[in-house]
């Protein structure tokens, strides 16, 4: 038995397990996004009456982004599982790769928007919106 036929045999054994798992993860990812939107909206309605509107809006955007980001990461996981069971044609691999690339770009952009800084600068400088005006001035000792 050659390697290709063994790989095809293994794929035919695990496909019935992985296909429902990938589909379940897709539904779960969409559910996480919907629950994130609901929780962020309820929090915004609560905050808009107890804090300044601009602060409530910024908190709403951050919470909304976190829910979307978590859902997108779950959807990327579902896409990765789907690549395992998909027939390996250039078209299917290219399409799934493009979907993962788009979702990864969206996740990256949302994370940068939420944190107010690029991910690779997280440990080096605080986000621009959290620095006080005097923190950017040199120390006058």
The computed structural class is mainly alpha
Task: Tally the helices.
Answer: 3
Question: Based on CA inertia axes, which overall geometry fits?
Answer: elongated
Percent strand: under 5%
- Tell me roughly what share of residues is in helical segments: over 70%
**Major sheet description:** none
Overall pLDDT confidence: 80
Low-confidence stretches: 131-141
Helix/strand order, N-terminal first = HHH
Number of strands: 0
- Tell me the radius of gyration: 22 Å
- Overall tally of domains: 1
Through-space gap between termini: 77 Å
Architecture overview:
The protein has 141 residues and is mainly α. The protein has one domain. It contains three helices and no strands. 9% of the residues are buried.
List its traits.
141 residues, mainly alpha, disordered C terminus
Describe, in short, the structure shown.
This protein has helices at residues 3-50, 53-85, 90-115. The chain has 141 residues and is mostly helical.
């Amino acid at each position: 038995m050659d390697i290709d036929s063994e790989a095809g045999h293994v794929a035919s054994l695990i496909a019935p397990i992985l296909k429902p798992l990938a589909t379940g993860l897709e539904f779960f990812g969409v559910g996480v996004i919907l629950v994130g939107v609901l929780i962020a909206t309820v929090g915004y309605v609560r905050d808009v009456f107890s804090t300044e509107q601009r602060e409530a809006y910024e908190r709403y955007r951050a919470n909304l982004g976190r829910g979307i980001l978590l859902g997108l990461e779950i959807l990327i996981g579902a896409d990765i599982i789907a690549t395992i069971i998909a027939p390996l044609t250039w078209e299917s691999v290219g399409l799934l790769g493009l979907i993962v690339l788009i979702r990864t770009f969206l996740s990256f952009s949302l994370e940068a928007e939420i944190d107010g800084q690029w991910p690779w600068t997280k440990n080096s400088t605080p986000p621009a919106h959290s620095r006080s005006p005097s923190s950017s001035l040199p120390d006058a000792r």
